[in-house]
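Page 37, continued from 36.
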């Protein structure tokens, strides 16, 4: 499917939107997955995890085509988002387990896991919970802890309380205001996005967004970041007003050997400033893949040692 995209002041001509399918994750539920082949059957695989309030395609559609020239590219809708798994509760731990289950269902090994904003938090947890499935990480617009200031603590605590009163009210005035608030936080507005993109955005309910934001507010990976032992790249959005650049840089410096790829862009760079984001993402993913191959060679026993 070809879509002409107009996002804010950024025009992305004729981006190909890949067709997806529902995939059953045994014992967990079904989610919407796209699987774009790479240039060769043995191309390395990158799994892309989306931002809060978005879908796999809405966060990553400008990146899929360029990435597929080097990688097999997988997207999925996280639970409670888009056509993702519906469950009684939202948990980042469950989201990470969903990614691992998808890796198993698709028969993948040693994948690169890339995440944007919320997706970068889940990517951290995928390594934490399933290190044997992860060959590298690309963390974009990320952080290790949301509740690091009085303002952030108040925001997340208030979101938890407020959303308790909006469950089941997805069409109410309260819910509409919540959706508009979320859109504003992501630098998105209905007039700025193509009908397709806005439909993707509306496919996640305000209640789900609130619960996801509350879960993000409880995230804290700082104690174990220094133990990440796979090649990692961090794409820093230096004009980000949602996740301060200093927090993104601090995370990168806590991960041994992480490379930093900074761009002058805001928190919605993945779509609204894709002309800056996509080249940095490609550089980051290519760097991780090269280091992943070198790491594998260093850790494999030599033929003489096996003799």
């Amino acid at each position: 499917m070809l879509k002409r995209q107009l996002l804010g002041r950024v025009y992305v001509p004729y981006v190909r939107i890949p067709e997806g399918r529902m995939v059953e994750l045994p014992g967990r539920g079904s989610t919407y997955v796209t699987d774009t082949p790479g240039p060769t059957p043995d191309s390395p695989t990158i799994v892309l995890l989306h931002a809060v309030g978005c879908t796999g395609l809405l966060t990553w559609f400008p990146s899929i085509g360029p990435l597929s020239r080097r990688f097999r590219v997988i997207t999925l809708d996280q639970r409670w988002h888009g056509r993702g798994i519906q469950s009684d509760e939202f948990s980042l731990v469950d989201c990470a387990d969903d990614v691992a289950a998808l890796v198993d269902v698709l028969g993948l090994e040693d994948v690169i896991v890339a995440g944007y904003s919320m997706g970068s938090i889940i990517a951290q947890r995928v390594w934490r919970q399933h290190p044997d499935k992860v060959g590298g990480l690309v963390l974009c617009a990320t952080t290790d802890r949301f509740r690091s200031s009085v303002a952030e603590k108040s925001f997340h605590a208030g979101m938890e309380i407020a959303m308790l009163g909006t469950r089941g009210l997805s069409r109410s005035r309260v819910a509409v205001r919540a959706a508009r608030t979320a859109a504003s936080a992501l630098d998105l507005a209905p007039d700025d996005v193509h009908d397709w993109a806005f439909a993707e955005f509306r496919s996640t309910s305000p209640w789900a967004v609130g619960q996801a934001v509350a879960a993000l507010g409880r995230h804290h990976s700082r104690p174990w970041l220094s133990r990440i032992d796979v090649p990692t790249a961090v794409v820093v959005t230096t004009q980000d007003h949602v996740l301060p650049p200093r927090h993104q840089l601090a995370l990168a410096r806590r991960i041994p050997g992480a490379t930093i790829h900074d761009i002058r862009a805001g928190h919605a760079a993945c779509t609204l400033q894709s002309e800056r984001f996509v080249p940095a993402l490609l550089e980051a993913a290519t760097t991780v893949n090269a280091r992943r191959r070198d790491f594998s060679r260093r850790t494999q026993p030599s033929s003489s040692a096996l003799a």
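The CA atoms of residues 62 and 96 lie 24 Å apart. Flag for discussion at group meeting. Confidence is low (pLDDT under 50) at residues 1-13, 153-193, 301-307.
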